[in-house]
Structure formats: C-alpha cells, structure tokens
Amino acid sequence: MIRHWLGRSQIFAKLQLDSLNRRGKHSLSYPSIATSTRCDSSLIHHYQEIAVRRPASGHATGFRVIQIFNRTSWVMQQMKISVRFYNQKSWVVRDCKSIDEILQTASKRIDDSLPVPIAAVWSGISHMITQHRFSKPHNTKTIEHQMTVLLRYTRDSLNKSKSKDLATINLSIAKIVRGIREAHERRRVNIYHQAFGSVLQDDNSKPDQSIFHALVKATDAKLPDFKSQALANTAYAYALLGYDPKIDERSLLGGIAEKSIDCIHQFKAQEFANTVWSCAKLKVDHPRLFQSVGDSVASKLDLNEFTPQNLANIVWAYATNSMQHSDLFQKIGDCIAAMDDLRSFDPQALANIVWAYSTNKSQHHGLFQKVGDSVASKRDLNEFAPQALAIIVWAYATAKVQHPGLFRKVGDSIVAMDDLRSFQPRHLSMIVWAYASINTRQHPNLFQKMGDSIVAVDDLRSFQPQVIANIVWAYAKLDVKHPGLFMKMGDSIVAMDDMRSFDPQALANIVWAYATSNTHHPNLFQKVGDAVVCSDGSKVFTTQCLANLVWSYAKLDVKHPSLFKKIGKSIGALNDLSSFNSQALSNIAWSFAVADVDVPVAFNDAFIRALVVKQTEFNVKDLTQLYKWHIWQVEKKSSTGLPEVLRKRCERAFKNTHS
C-alpha cells in the first residue's frame, strides 16, 4: 500500500512537470520515488532546485512549479516514517545466509517491538538445518538466549497466526527435530543441534510440551480453517515427530482426518500420500479417511500427477494399517504395470510397493512381473540397500510369486559383495527365508556366503529368536549343509539366560531344522525341551508345533521324557483333533513310540476318531509310522490301537516297505 501511495505521488509530479515542459519548453526532471528504497532530503531538494535553477519563462509557470514542489514535498515528508516502517516490516528471511543471522535478526526485531514473520523464520531455520548450512557461532549463551526469545515470541503469536502459518510452523519444527535426530544417528552433532534439541525435546528425546502444548492447542482451534495442503503438512509434521498429540483425549491426527474427509475434493497427489502415510506412521486407525482417499484416487482417470514416491507411500500406508481397498490397489498396480520403465522409482519405493501388495494380499501379476523385470534387468544392484533387497525377495516369497531372474540377480549381487557387515540380522533372515519358501535351490553360493558371515560374528546377541529360527529353518528346508552355522546358532541359544523371548513356533522350527539336517546338539535340545516344559498357558502351541517338537526329538533320538509327557497331556486335553493334518497325526504317534514314553491320555478316543476321519489322506510313510505305533501299543498291552480296517492298511504298507 505504501508503494502504491508513493507511486501515485510520483505519477502526479511527472504529469504536472511534463505539462510544463510541453507549454514552456522546459526540460524538468524528477526522481524515481516508487522504485527508491530510501526517503531522504535529497529527494525533496531535487524539487526545490527546479524552481531555483530553472526559472520559468512566465510568472504563472514558475508558480506552478512551486505548487508541484509543495505538494510532492508534503507527501514525501508525511511518508518518510511510513517508508522506513515498510522497509523494516518487509524483512525477507530467505535472504539470510545462516541460522545465526536469522536468530540475530529475529531477536533484535523482537527486542525493538518490530513484527517478525514467525512462520518464515522457522521455515528458514529448518531449511538450513536440512541443508547443513551452519556458520561458526560466536557465543553459545547468546544463541540460547536468542532461541528462548524466539520461542516465547512464537508462543505469544500462535493464537493470532493464520492456519497456513500454523501448518508451516508445525512442519518446520518437525523438520528441525528430525535433523537433530539424524545428526545424533550420524554422530555429527553441532552446537545448533544441541541448542535446538534442548528446547524442542525433553530428556527422552520426545517433543517438549512447553512449546508443543501451545502449538497443538492453536492448531486444533484453527483446524476448521485449514485447507488441504495445511492439513497434509500438519499431519506429515507430527508423523516426522512420531507424536500424535491429544487434546482433551482427542487425537489431533483424528481431527485432521475428519477435516480431510470434508475437503477431500481439494486434495492433490502429494496431499493424499502425505495424509494416509502420516496416519499409518502414527498408527491412527481411521477407516473412513482411508476409504475416502481410496475412492478418490481410484476414481481418477489416470495417476499421472502422482510421483513414484506418492504411489509407494499410499500403498505402504494401506498395508501398514491393514486397510483393504481392492480398487485402489488395482488402479495403482495397473498404472505401474503400464509404465514404459521404472527408472524413476528408487529402490526403497520398489521395495515398499511389493511389500504392500504382499502384506495386503493384493494379487497383481502384472505389477510383480514389472518390478521383477526392472530389478533383474539392472546392470548392478549397488544402489539397493540391504533392507530393500531383503524386502523385495521377502515380498515375492510371501506372495508366492516366482521370478527366477529376480532371485538370481539378488543372489549374484550379494555373493559379489566383499562382506555382509551392512546387513542386519533380520535382513539375512528375510533373504534366506524367502529363497527357502519358494524352494529356490539355484543359489548355494548365497547360503554359503551368508552362513560364513554369521559364523564370523563374535556373538549373536543381536539376533532375535525369530531371526535365528528363520535362518536355521531355511538351511534345513533347502538341505544346505553348513555345520559351523548350526553349531554357532545352537551355542548362542544355549548361552541365553532364559528362553521366554522365544515363541512356540520359533522353538518348534529350531529343533525341526536340526532334526531335518541331522545336526546333533544335545545341549540345545535340552534347553528347548526345558523351555517347553516350563512354559505357562500364555503361550499357545499349535498342532503343527506339537507335532514338530516330538518328531524332532524322536528323529535324533534325544531323550526328554518331561517334554513328551507335557505335550501328551496337551493333546489329550483336546476334544477335537480336526485341526491336525494326516502327517501331524502319524508323526505324533510314531514319535511317542520311538521315544518309548507312554502317555495313555494322549491316545484317547478323540485321537482314534481323528485317525479314522483322515484315513483316506494317509500316504505310505504315514501308514508305516502308524503301524509302528500300533505295534508299540500292543507291546505296552494297551487297550488302544488302530481300528481293524486301518490296521490292515498300515500293516500292508509296512510289509511292502520292509520287504
């Protein structure tokens, strides 16, 4: 408005002087007021000199020049303070070269009671932290004082801030906190990280309530005014913080979700992606939001406005929150499958996409084929982090999608590496599990490399129980021999103080793997057996777990009567054994006979009824095992035995096998 006022004064002076020039043929000039950033006496003196140095040819003309001077100088005099105020108000934060300069300028303006564009200040600081633009600070205490002043001013300004500015402040502070956390992870913390961390986070690295309480309260109050971009940015901000604040027991993210539904028609691609990703990241369960977003995206004619990262984040969010939307997954799958190539997708995006489809049980052959072909056709996989490689092969195995080229490429890439120190235990576990699950025996060198890498680790305390179970299971499943690996794993388990962290499935898979690979480790079996015997009712053993446990001990002829008695009583307590498949029933019967542990309650009428129901499903091996159990029961003079028809079938199978 000030420039507009000055501009009109300039136009007035110009028109009047031009008129005099035409009539009196004078050559009068004027300064450029509207484009000047200064307002000093030289501008006014210029007009005074017009009348003094350029006397008019007539009295009237000279008088008119004086009138021009008087009016223009009066305007200029009245505007001197306003121009100065304009220049002070229009502080452009982005022109600052460092955080230090922003803090100094903001602090000085606050002290001088001048307005501070608070949203721009926080945005500028976050940008510089993200870009690692730091200057050498002069004084630590000065910086801390400036930050304290800035935070106090921010709190006082929140209730007067517009919705867009509040969203900017939320997002900027979140990015600053993320930068601080990343600096700690990289162990490259400087004075700015320390200073901002001390005021924005508490001792547990959680958002400090002294600033966030006021920010959240102001944000919640202005939510009705938020537009789509502000909603998405605010949700994204708190997802970066890992913090879903509550207002009177209400979730802020829940409020954002409700408001987003009301204005879903305004959302752009980035806003769709950021909103659902944020809800998934914070585990905010809001089916209506996901349904609304899914319907909106699936109904679009095309997804050209969506970047690869947008597509990856959307499907990842739905899978993470276990939200089903078949039309959405079909639309995105079709979009990706129809692309000429996937070079615009970074490795993690590809991994997240196939992970989402696999986890959500969304079948899309074209998508998996396209991603598999893209990875397999690459010259090398150097840009793929271990996590991306692990997730990709895990996703294909979980979805039961065969792609030999993909698995060959990933295997070759890992084998070619100098070492596998960049792979976390869970990455190793996911990879070998994936190869074993799809029964891929085409890469023995991969298993040798991974086994050697694990054996070379000083101790396996970083290996979680499920990781250990998956690794030995995979080697046994593919019949890959690696004695050193099995010995290392077994010793690690035996050295543990207790086994409470192992779930029943992990225990069963571990002993099954050792039995299948014919690897003896008595101390391991004693440890696992004791853990099963000591387990309470909180751990539920499935029928397959029970069968695998007793079969493994019998297979290696490991004596543990207490284990068999515990499992036998568990089986006897079941009134319905329909959940046991034919192999499980025959394995249980055979195992008790081989172990020679008599638990009559296990082989009650319910067990015999289950055998009769499954009798058409038994193969020759099952029938042979059941006949051995029958003979054992006869030797024990037990009243329990096979029904006559089934007994004859079992006897024939046994004799044919041993003839």
Overall description:
This protein has 659 residues and is mainly alpha-helical. It is built from 31 helices and two strands. The protein has helices spanning 2-24, 41-53, 59-89, 99-111, 118-130, 140-157, 163-186, 191-200, 209-222, 228-241, 252-262, 269-281, 287-298, 308-320, 326-337, 347-359, 365-376, 386-398, 404-415, 425-437, 444-455, 465-477, 483-494, 504-516, 522-534, 543-555, 561-572, 582-595, 605-613, 620-635, 644-658; strands at residues 246-247, 250-251. It has a two-stranded antiparallel sheet. Helix 28 runs parallel beside helix 30 (620-635). It is elongated. Residues 1-9, 20-63 and 78-89 have low confidence and may be disordered.
Features:
659 residues, 67% helix, 31 helices, mainly alpha, two-stranded antiparallel sheet, single chain
Query: Radius of gyration in whole Å, from Cα?
Result: 38 Å
Q: Main beta sheet, described? A: 2 strands, antiparallel
Q: What class, by secondary structure content?
A: mainly alpha
Determine the number of helices (DSSP H or I, runs of at least 4 residues): 31
Number of strands: 2
Strand order of the largest sheet: 1-2
Point out poorly predicted stretches: 1-9, 20-63, 78-89
